[in-house]
Amino acid sequence: MATKTYAGTNVACNEEGYLMNLEEWTKEVGEEIAKEEGITMTPQHWEVIAYLQDQYRQQLPLTIRKIGKSGVTDIKAFYQLFPEGPLKKASRIAGIPKPVSCI
């Protein structure tokens, strides 16, 4: 386990850079992780992040297909919002573990 500093906050991360504790996440932390991923956050990005965090808190499994059917975004838009591994990148920005459906 490593510690990284985002927005002046020390957070525990695993070896892949995913936060170990969602309680350490703030919007500012998510914004800095998004910058590392090369993503400029928009309101639509934040809607997806809020959805992912809500699903995680309810202990529901996450898949790209499920997100596409969520009503928050469709699959095509999800790939446009978070190119090159949308669920992996969005989960990292959301401060939740990498979903098991991600390779």
Q: Going across the biggest sheet, name each strand in turn.
A: 1-2
Query: Segments where pLDDT lies below 50 for 5+ residues?
Result: none
> In percent terms, what proportion of residues is strand?
5-15%
Helical fraction equals 40-55%
Overall body shape? globular
The ordered string of helix (H) and strand (E) elements is EEHHHHH
Secondary-structure-based class equals mainly alpha
What integer is the average pLDDT? 94
Q: How many alpha or pi helices?
A: 5
The biggest sheet amounts to: 2 strands, antiparallel
Radius of gyration: 13 Å
Strand tally: 2
Span between termini: 20 Å
Question: What does this 3D model show about the protein?
Answer:
- The protein has a two-stranded antiparallel ribbon with strand order 1-2.
- It is mainly alpha-helical and 103 residues long.
- Strand 1 (2-6) and strand 2 (9-13) form a beta hairpin.
- Helix 2 packs across helix 5.
- The chain is built from five helices and two strands, in the order E-E-H-H-H-H-H.
- Helix content is 45%, strand content 10%.
